[in-house]
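[Q] Does anyone have a clean structure-token version of this?
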Amino acid sequence: MTESAPYPIGTPGRPWGADEKAQWLSRQTRKRSYADDVVRRIDALRDRFDVSEYGALDYAPDRHALYAVRNRHWRDERPLVLVTGGVHGYETSGVHGALQFLEQHAEAYAGRINLLVAPCVSPWAYERIHRWNAYAIDPNRSFRENSPAPESAALLKLVAPNRDRFVLHIDLHETTDTDESEFRPALAARDGVPYEPGEIPDGFYLVGDSEDPQPAFQQAIIDAVAKVTHIAPADAHGEIIGSPVVGPGVINYPLRKLGLCAGITGARLRTTTEVYPDSPQATPAQCNDAQVAAVIAAIDYALADMG
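[A] Here you go.
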């Protein structure tokens, strides 16, 4: 294997300091509009749902409001469900899948669940099609007390009053070719460690919680998504992104230990979706549909599981 060229910022073997982070930030440019793509669609939901601003990101000169969407007429006896998207702003179908679910399917659960949706947790990164925030921090490794990521801290504060009442949390993500061409090399450079190339799985998969994997729940989602798009196979080592495959299209991580979004509630049913938008076998519409199918299957499983 030939060695890859060094990342254009920093010195190999030396973690970034303030100068390198400033250089990295200077290279980030706005490529799409959170207001046009996301906020406009959220505003269109206001006649059917309760929309609230749960925080804001102030990355001068930009300010982005953070929005949560709830179904109306919450009742304490109903199961509480959390759907999150856009924790990594570049993972487009996570955002648009959450919005599509709200627009087309959420009302079908009226009177059955209390639904809380945060469609775009990281709007600054959404606009720049990036994994990190403006501080070169990955929000999806930062869901912990005293989080250094404002995106993570705001979402933690949103869910805190009901943290132990959630029965389900599904966090919508993608795995893309840029994970290997940009984001993992940048991570290695930032941390001053060697970059070790990995393999991008072709297809949809789930990341469950190794502390409480809930295999039947994960399988129900895989079965539903398989009707929409293909499921990622294991690689030659029986793994997906370096983790053992524990069921078709399913791997497990220690969600809370790693500071991942899917571990922020006390929900027994929790998972992270991963679609592959760069696959020749998938379209952007299929990726959005796969996210929606995953959310529907997860909620239906939770309702059936409660009897």
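[Q] Thanks! Anything notable?
[A] The mean pLDDT is 96.
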